[in-house]
Amino acid sequence: MQKLVEVLADKQALIAKSLALVLEKITTSLDQQDYFTIALSGGSTPKPLYEALSSQPLDWSKIHVFWGDERYVSPDHPDSNQRMARLAWLDRIPIPAANIHPMPTDEPDPHLAAQKYDDHLRQWFGVNSPDFPVFDLILLGMGDDGHTASLFPHTAALTVSDRCITVGEKDGNPRLTFTVPLINQARCVIFIAAGESKRPALHQIFSAYGDSFSYPSRLIHPPAGELYWLLDAAAGSSFV
Ligand SMILES: O=C(O)[C@H](O)[C@@H](O)[C@H](O)[C@H](O)COP(=O)(O)O
């Protein structure tokens, strides 16, 4: 695994660097293959990145967009990660509808929805259990508590090792999430984190010793892939 931590002067520089890196990954991959697979993070940090991507002259017919986690709400709910990405980016570009792969949130039981998306990923990538699909790029954020995707501290989702998708839980509310083994199969994982509030968790995550179940982002280290941590100075100035 190649790991790179870069601290940018401010949020604007962080988004500019994130955009440059995402574009680099897309263009170099499409030089070698016919399509590019990206899984999106939710939360607030990546929204300006998605807005910036909407003005990029890319061959969207070759790009397939998935989500790394989703709140278990309807696609038009204000908390929906799908809604955020569509408004900021996907509704603004000529991407084929078939290239957008939202997590289903219409099943009465979130576990059924998790299985549906798991099945969809395995079918689309042509990968059967026990192997895992290999994403070209997975974008991740990190919560103040060190969670990533919807892999929250001390939850059962952290230990799921035989599935691509499981049900996470925050404050009693279900969420669909990529599992740790799926994320760690990726060719490239990019964490994007900003703000002073991230510092305590980052100290725990970057320390040589720490509890991964208290700080789940510690669990993300793709053995055959690249791992980038892109931080603004408010979050990461003491790490480099
Ligand atoms: O659905 C979500 O909320 C995200 O996937 C989650 O993991 C997010 O990335 C972090 O909570 C950071 O959120 P911010 O970017 O808002 O700090």
TrEMBL record:
List each coiled-coil range: none
| Leading EC class | hydrolase
Q: Which CDD domains match?
A: 6PGL (cd01400)
InterPro entries cross-referenced by the UniProt entry: 6-phosphogluconolactonase_DevB, 6PGL, Glc/Gal-6P_isomerase, NagB/RpiA_transferase-like
* Keyword Hydrolase carried by entry: yes
Which pathway does it operate in? Carbohydrate degradation; pentose phosphate pathway; D-ribulose 5-phosphate from D-glucose 6-phosphate (oxidative stage): step 2/3
Q: Which reaction does it catalyse?
A: 6-phospho-D-glucono-1,5-lactone + H2O = 6-phospho-D-gluconate + H(+)
Q: Which UniProt keywords apply?
A: Hydrolase
Q: Would I find ATP-binding among this entry's keywords?
A: no
Q: What is its EC number?
A: 3.1.1.31
Tell me one Pfam family matched here.
Glucosamine_iso
Q: Where is the Glucosamine/galactosamine-6-phosphate isomerase domain?
A: 10-229
> Its Gene Ontology molecular function terms?
6-phosphogluconolactonase activity
According to its UniProt entry, one GO biological process term is: carbohydrate metabolic process
The UniProt entry's sequence similarity note says:
Belongs to the glucosamine/galactosamine-6-phosphate isomerase family. 6-phosphogluconolactonase subfamily.
Function comment: Hydrolysis of 6-phosphogluconolactone to 6-phosphogluconate.
| Record-linked NCBIfam families | pgl
From the Swiss-Prot or TrEMBL record, give the protein name.
6-phosphogluconolactonase
Question: Gene encoding it?
Answer: pgl
